[in-house]
Amino acid sequence: MDNRIIFTCLPSHELAQKLYTNVLKSLLPDCGRLRLVSYLDFPIRDEFNHEIRTLIHLSNAVIVVVDRAVLNVIYEMGVADGHGKPVILVAPNVDEPPTMLRARNVITFNPEEPTSDNLRDRLEKVLKATLQGTFIDQRFQDHISVLINKAVCRAPSDELPASGADDLDAGMHYYRVKNYEKAGYSLERAMKAGSRDEETYFMLADAFFLLGESLSPGERQRNAYQKMQHFSREGTKLHPKDKRLRKTLGLSCMKLGDFDRAENFFNALLAEDPEYTVATYNLACLNALQQKKSHCVRFLSDLFSRNPEWRYLARLDSDFDGVWADELIQRLMFPCPINQ
């Protein structure tokens, strides 16, 4: 399954369709791995109700265009809430949603001007926050952004704040604003000039990882992963106890297809620190890439029991595409609270 979905529940009237076509669809262009879909994107069949419930169950979040007079939308909203999905409500006023759901963040719009930029901006911010969950580590948020946009995510401007910045300052700036190609170039120059601390090595290796994740498979992507491997390996020679560098070295092996070495790195990290959940997650990815479903399920179960927020990353990670259709994997990714 190459795409993840945000499902949209909406009435069939013209206003809702205009909102969907002109505002909501523009939030997630079809060029990315995460798509926005609704019943308008599929032919209506006899099993329509079953298909809608299935799409809600498999979605990463649900957007609801609320109209109290349209009962099927209220029903679908209840299905989404029952499955524990993040629900984003879009309504002409805050009193339109049912009383029990008004505590949710309701995004209001003007029915006379439904396609305003203000609505689009507010929706984009709420959707981004919903998908990122409660991760504090910016590293994970960057990774999700890369998967959604399939491009290097940048701030509105990546110009250096000061013209006199040295290569290390420039590299750290470009890393923060998510221009990973420039970050790699500047940090590499800083390293040649003598910056050899573990933070510089990690940012440099991680910049090439995130650059590789944003590229389509091919020689350029492989070159990025090879540079990631080179700098993480050099970093671990100087800083052998740094877990992030050792994890990144294992991750580079995984991305380059050296699965046995990657597994050794991740297992060694877990043996030293059983609470290092990053290594557990990477082992789940590694087993998914090798179609070892039972091992993948074991690591995901352990990971989600420790911190359910990992699901936000796993649901979007392309490493799980090969096992996505497996029923046990889907139950782990999308547990139904009604059955728990």
Mean pLDDT: 84
Topology order in helix (H) and strand (E) letters: EHEHEHEEHHHHHHHHHHHH
Question: Number of DSSP helices?
Answer: 15
Structural domains: how many: 3
Distance between the termini: 26 Å
Q: What helical percentage do the residues reach? A: 55-70%
- Kindly report the spatial arrangement of strands forming the biggest sheet: 2-1-3-4-5
The percentage of residues in β strands lies in 5-15%
In CATH terms, what is the architecture of the largest domain? 3-Layer(aba) Sandwich
Say what the CATH topology of the largest domain is: Rossmann fold
Q: CATH homologous superfamily name of the largest domain?
A: P-loop containing nucleotide triphosphate hydrolases
Alpha-carbon Rg, integer: 22 Å
Number of strands: 5
Query: Which spans have pLDDT < 50 for at least 5 consecutive residues?
Result: 134-139, 150-156
- Structural category is alpha/beta
General shape: globular
Largest sheet: 5 strands, parallel
CATH class of the largest domain: Alpha Beta
Précis, in short:
By secondary structure, the chain is α/β, with parallel strands linked by helices. It contains 15 helices and 5 strands. Strands 2-1-3-4-5 form a 5-stranded parallel beta sheet, sandwiched between helices.
